[in-house]
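Curious: why these numbers?
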Amino acid sequence: MKHLEHILWDEWLTIPFIKPVEDEIAGIINGLNYRKDSDYYVFSSRRLFTIRRLLYLFSEIPTFNKTMNAKDVIQIINTNIKGKTVFRIKESMAKDIILRSSSFGRRERNWNWIRGVWGSCGSLYLPKSGYYLVIRLPENNSIPDRLQSILKSAGFSIGVRKRIKTRELILRNQQQIVTLLSRLGFVRTTLALEETAILRMMRNRANKLVNCDSANINKSLAVAQNQLQTIKKLETQGLVETLPEHLKELVFLRKENPSATLGELGQFLSRPITKSTVKYRWRKLEEVLRK
């Protein structure tokens, strides 16, 4: 999982921007908690690479390039407040972004915007079994409803879980997770996830075969043990010598091959027989013992 996580975030951080970059910037901002402070909007994030992506995107806006440096737009206040990095953006700039997201958010399937939201509050987990993609959004605006509506309209089976101050949008279907990551432009991550899925499937299949073989071996040994006990009772009562030759041969072969399966036992006979015929003959031996 660590390997896949590194691929995912490295790809998100370095993926080429798609115009208009303001869409992805708005998505990142929409996925963060923020508060108004004087002439600024103050944001916080545990993901330092999110701020790096913001700086990169702001540097690609022509109007900002001409008038100011991207680092002047994003001012980092503190890099260690309960594990979070706190930064601020001037109110006028932040408002423009928020208003922009309000207007284009009505358009369905803006994957640039969704990529930004994912980068600020999305996560991918691979527990021992299954797959788990979650986007944890602040429950203080209409963004969760908007994103949920967009993803559902695109055919994704989204689960919803409400937490304190957040809403989680959850995707558990492996193929749908691959599709979503692909639409966000994460080619390397998609290939790595599909490779992981194939390896898991092969491992599960191998485990099932081993478990099945183990169960069959245990069953064969239990049957053989019961047959050896039947033979012992026949010998104790002096009945073995009275048996027909084909049953007597079966008794001797079982004693010589205590761990053989019924199928193998049938093939060891001077005249090989099928597994079902071996079963039939053992029922005959049990009938002799009951009489």
Q: What stands out?
A: The longest helix spans residues 187-236.
